[in-house]
Design brief:
Number of helices: 20
Number of strands: 27
Helix content: 25-40%
Strand order of the largest sheet: 7-6-12-3-4-11-8-9
Distance between the termini: 77 Å
CATH architecture of the largest domain: 2-Layer Sandwich
Strand content: 15-25%
Number of domains: 5
Shape: globular
Radius of gyration: 31 Å
Largest sheet: 8 strands, antiparallel
CATH topology of the largest domain: Ribosomal Protein S5, domain 2
Mean pLDDT: 88
């Protein structure tokens, strides 16, 4: 906005030019930052403050001259301004001194420091070139092996190799009917008219369903608001591609149409925050539903963090990171992508389901043909492990020995359990673990490994949709304790074992003291000191708690940090400004998951309409309301997840307990 910028080196060069001093510019620039002081007596730079005191070199040589220039420009005294500018060898036309303060200051600084090239200068100096940074990018983002011809060509950024590109963002056309794909070319050369295979986020060499062939109809070099059309682009370039967007939802990998070597995809984008706020939408006029659905598909393409989904109840939901983001999404949906009137339900949050104890007994489930039986228990996962799995610090695809050593050394698992991990779920980086805790003397390991995929799919299904209110399970370890399997392959197929594995996951979960988890925001509030009491009051009413309040050095402002449950965040900013007369400003972002107070399965709790529930009843209230919204029964039916023999075992144990009491 100012039209000018500077770097330490440009300031050092300016001093050398103005004063005619012949010193190494880079050495001088290095001494203009950090705890460095200029000693006028010795005419040298030292890390210790001179005996008479003094300012750091950044303040003395950069900040104070800047303050002086701004003060003179704002003071509007022409003679003094001319004198200061003359020190820098700058002479303005007489008409320039008749400008208003802001444009005059901008012009003066531009003449002294030059145009705004500081950011680009820093990028050129500190960021690696396309070829220099190719190895790190490929190792970090490519999911396949790198010791292949394709991996080697990407690391070399070889323009003569087969074409490979990674699509990272979709930009809408002016009419919003289609998108152009912004991609980085990792290897090869692409030309207008080339036919390429578009590999989606669900593609793998074993499952090629998420794959399509498209023709590139146009290429541009994208520079800010300008598009420069080109006929071809080489490895290392960022390009905008037309004609391939139909099969892309978020990101994609592009390779030639005919390529014999196995190709893996680049990792989807990962973010530090999560989409935990959800709204349901429906068109005001029911016949406009197809238009709204098309608009939701476009929204899903346009916003990397937005997730659109159709619930089992039939409602179309949009998930985003916060209220302001969802307001922007709805504005685009109504005005750009669907051009229909859309009704929006009140925002709600996504929950997770977890356990706080080990299953009270060994849970088992039989297949429908009564020839297979799985036994399992559930228990809480080690603290911090779920976050490490989600962050990619541990990978299920590691060799068994490496995976076992990681869990054995960091979480003190025994060797057998550490090397018997079957899966993370849901998906490859899900915050739950399935492990085989059976003994070779009790279970036929050959048969068990033969049905490993089926049990894993049942575990993934169960972890994706928990039994409490169809929300994902989190932070739970499921142990397979026993497996009685039919020797005939036909009797232990996926159709028999997948639903059974899901059922035993649910029964083990429900007997391990299940709880709901809610997303929690980290909130940072900037406020004057006299508004602190009001902010504490607003936070306490919304189950928030302050973690730190620190004065901002050199200002009358305090920086207050707090945690606030996302479900309590709706209208928080408005409430905050009302109670502080607009003097406080806040930012919030997802920080962690926290267990909701209370037992969601406690049927003795009576929920009264239009009355706020006590804190210990919140888990029950959230579960019931979520189930109602999804069109489910208000309570969890154990008959749905427990086999008759399991129910009899529960009744027998309950009778034994009553006899003891």
């Amino acid at each position: 906005a100012g039209g000018w910028s500077f770097t330490l080196r440009s300031f050092a060069q300016l001093y050398c030019d103005v004063h005619g001093v012949a010193v190494p510019v880079d050495d001088f620039a290095a001494r203009l930052w950090g705890d460095m002081y200029y000693n006028e007596a010795t005419r040298g730079f030292r890390k210790k403050m001179p005996p008479g005191g003094g300012e750091r070199t950044f303040v003395q040589f950069i900040l104070e001259p800047l303050y002086k220039i701004y003060t003179q420009c704002v003071g509007e005294h022409q003679k003094s301004v001319e004198k200061v500018l003359a020190e820098f060898g700058v002479y303005l036309k007489p008409s320039a001194y008749h400008l208003d303060v802001k444009p005059f200051t901008k012009l003066a600084c531009k003449e002294i420091f030059g145009t705004a090239t500081g950011l680009v200068d820093m990028m050129v100096k500190h960021l690696p070139s396309s070829r220099g940074g190719a190895t790190d990018k490929v190792e970090h983002n490519y999911t396949g092996p790198l010791d292949t011809e394709l991996g080697d060509s990407m690391k070399r950024c070889d323009a003569a190799a087969p074409f490979v590109a990674n699509v990272l963002k979709l930009y809408p056309k002016p009419d919003c009917t289609s998108f152009d794909s912004f991609a980085r070319i990792l290897a090869g050369t692409v030309r207008v008219g080339d036919r390429v295979r578009v590999l989606g986020e669900g593609y793998s060499p074993d499952d090629e369903e998420d794959c399509s062939v498209k023709e590139i109809t146009n290429l541009w070099i994208y520079q800010a608001r300008h598009r420069i059309p080109v006929q071809s682009a080489r490895a290392g370039s960022w390009v905008l591609i037309e004609g391939i967007d139909q099969s892309i939802s978020k990101t994609a990998t592009l390779v030639p149409e005919f390529y014999e070597e196995d190709v893996h995809i680049f990792r989807p984008l990962q973010f530090n925050t999560k989409s935990v706020i959800k709204i349901a939408t429906e068109p005001l006029n029911p016949p406009d539903l197809p238009k709204m659905v098309d608009g939701l598909r476009s929204i899903n393409k346009s916003y990397p963090l937005v997730v659109t989904k159709v619930e089992e109840s039939g409602e179309h939901t949009i998930m985003g990171t916060g209220e302001i983001m969802l307001d922007s999404v709805m504005k685009d949906l109504r005005e750009l992508y669907s051009d229909v009137e859309v009704k929006v339900a009140d925002p709600v949050v996504s929950f997770c389901e977890t356990v706080v104890e080990t299953s009270s007994l060994k849970c088992f489930a039989e297949t429908l043909n009564k020839r297979n039986k799985l036994t399992m228990i559930a228990e809480p996962l080690d603290k911090g492990l779920a976050e490490e799995i989600e962050a990619g610090a541990v990978d299920i695809d590691w060799p068994r020995k490496k995976l076992g050593d990681y869990f054995q050394s960091k979480y003190d698992w025994d060797l057998l359990a550490a090397r018997s991990i079957w899966a993370f779920g849901p998906d490859k980086q899900g915050p739950n673990v399935l492990l085989d805790d059976t003994l070779p003397s009790e279970v036929d390991k050959g048969l068990l490994n033969a049905v490993r995929d089926s049990i894993g799919q049942g575990f993934q299904w169960g972890a994706r949709e928990g039994p409490l209110c169809d929300e994902p399970i989190r932070n739970v370890k499921f142990k397979i304790l026993d497996a009685q399997l039919a020797p005939e392959p036909m009797l232990r197929g996926g159709g028999q074992l997948i639903p059974t594995a899901r059922r035993v996951v649910y029964s083990a979960f429900l007997l391990a003291t299940p709880r709901l988890m809610e997303p929690v925001y980290a909130v940072e509030v900037q406020t004057p000191a006299d508004c602190m009491a009001s902010i504490y009051t607003v936070l306490s009413k919304r189950r928030g708690h302050v973690t730190a309040d620190l004065p901002k050095p050199g200002t009358p402002i305090y920086l207050l940090k707090a945690f606030l449950p996302a479900v309590e965040s709706f209208g928080f900013e408005t409430d905050l400004r009302y109670h502080t007369q607009g003097q406080a400003f806040c930012t919030s972002y997802f920080d962690h998951w926290s267990i909701v107070p209370g037992d969601p399965l406690d049927r003795s709790i009576v929920l009264r309409p239009l009355e706020p529930a006590p804190v210990q009843h919140l888990a029950r209230e959230f579960m019931v309301k979520t189930r109602r919204r999804k069109g489910m029964n208000e309570d969890v039916s154990i008959n749905q997840f427990f086999d008759d023999p399991m129910l009899l075992e529960l009744a027998r144990q309950d009778a034994d307990l009553q006899a003891i009491l």
